[in-house]
Design a protein that fits this description.
By secondary structure, the chain is of the alpha/beta class. The chain has helices at residues 12-16, 18-21, 29-35, 47-59, 87-100, 114-126, 143-151, 177-192, 209-225, 242-253, 265-277, 293-300, 312-328, 330-335, and strands at 2-4, 72-77, 102-107, 131-134, 156-159, 171-174, 198-204, 228-235, 259-262, 285-289, 306-310, 354-356, 359-362. Among the domains are: 72-175 and 312-328, Response regulator (Rossmann fold), CATH 3.40.50; 177-309 and 361-369, 3-Layer(aba) Sandwich (Rossmann fold). The chain starts with a strand and ends in a 14-residue tail after the last strand.
Length: 376
């Protein structure tokens, strides 16, 4: 578990936009109005009066500084923390937490284990955080923990992959996975294949909602084109050891495969390693998902053709901002200005039920811009 503590520092920009968050106020109107009165002139006081004023000011008690507002406590419930995919989400919630005075705690299993994640979610509820932002590893097993959190008064925001029953979350944010897979497939058929026929291997993680939805989008795009035959679908387990092994086995069993599409970065990198080791670079088109630096190098050297990239930093930045304003009641007050404070919790939440952050495409022409660290 990692914990990040931030201290609130008000920049000039934050003060100017303070009314958006409802956390700052300016009381300089009277001063500015007096200073800007037309025709007003300044008359210097006599030296003796100035000296007397200075002495009087010294004798006045110093006003105590205002107490700093306590940070909110948010928990990010995820999993498989060792993969590079988390770089972008962490950049997003870190930036928002710094701006809004939020402590962030990360919890989740080391693998795609929905049961373990559900247990950790229930343990998180017991700590009574101000909000939970989570991505479910299993759409069914996480429904009950989300229900328990909601009933305990802890708002839940879902990102990247949904639960089966949306009643128990405020909103879903991220690339809509079916659409992302569909656009990935259209890029393959229209831009990479240009109408040519192909026999494909799909590398994915069965049973995980976001991967299942991406796969369904891919298959829809391939079906519409009529030019792609899916020969085999394999489970790469988001594992850099397992992935190359299952890709190699599939290519050996089906030597006529000339296209590999992966639903995550692990699959794209695994396919690239397998093709490289088999000496088939240039014979097989490889299309990935996401932007791990270790995968991007295969686009840079020409092993991979492209990857579809989620806007994960934006996704988690917005998720954190949404939950901050929900917990503070800022947006609901704006929407219902005449409602008394004791009625705010009974009003409709002012969090978008669905925010689609879309997809970008990384190619050999723009790959240098997608690296998190400049390649050697």
């Amino acid at each position: 578990m990692k914990k990040m503590s931030t201290k609130r520092v008000f920049s000039r920009r934050e003060v100017l936009r303070g009314s958006l968050y409802g956390s700052l106020g300016l009381a300089a109107g009277g001063f500015l109005g007096a200073a800007c009165t037309p025709g007003a002139t300044a008359t210097p006081a006599p030296a003796t009066e100035a000296a007397m004023a200075t002495e009087a000011a010294k004798e006045e008690p110093t006003q105590a500084p205002a107490a700093q507002e306590q940070p909110l406590e948010f928990v990010i419930v995820g999993g498989v923390w060792n993969i590079g995919w988390w770089i972008d989400p962490r950049m997003g919630w870190t930036a928002a937490a710094k701006e809004l005075n939020i402590n962030i705690t990360e919890v989740g299993p080391v693998d795609f284990n929905g049961a373990d994640q559900a247990t950790m979610m229930e343990q998180t509820i017991a700590t009574k955080p101000d909000a939970i932002i989570m991505t479910p590893l299993d759409p069914d097993q996480l429904v009950d923990p989300c229900r328990k959190a909601t009933e305990a008064g802890i708002p839940v925001m879902i990102f990247n992959s949904d639960i089966r029953d949306p009643r128990w979350r405020l909103g879903l944010i991220g690339m809509q996975n079916f659409n992302g897979g569909y656009l990935q497939g259209k890029y393959v058929t229209d831009t990479l294949l240009k109408g040519e026929k192909a026999k494909a291997l799909i590398m994915t993680i069965p049973g995980v909602e976001n991967h299942e939805s991406r796969k369904a989008g891919l298959l829809k795009a391939f079906e519409e084109s009529g030019n792609v035959e899916v020969v085999e679908i394999v489970n790469d387990q988001a594992d850099y050891t397992v992935g190359p092994q299952v890709a190699t086995a599939a290519l050996q069993a089906n030597p006529d495969i000339n296209l590999i599409v992966a639903t995550d970065a692990t699959g794209g990198e695994s396919a690239s390693r397998a093709v490289t080791e088999m000496g088939r670079v240039g014979e097989i088109l490889i299309m990935g998902m996401d932007r791990d630096d270790s995968m991007l190098k295969f686009i840079k050297d020409g092993t991979m053709a492209a990857t579809a990239v989620q806007r994960n930093a934006l996704e988690l930045y917005l998720a954190t901002v949404y939950m901050y304003n929900h917990v503070k009641g800022n947006w609901v007050r704006n929407a219902f200005p005449s409602a008394p404070d004791d009625a705010l919790l009974s009003l409709p939440a002012q969090v978008p039920p669905l925010t689609d952050t879309g997809v970008m495409f990384c190619t050999p022409e723009n790959v240098d811009l997608f690296f998190h660290e400049k390649p050697a």
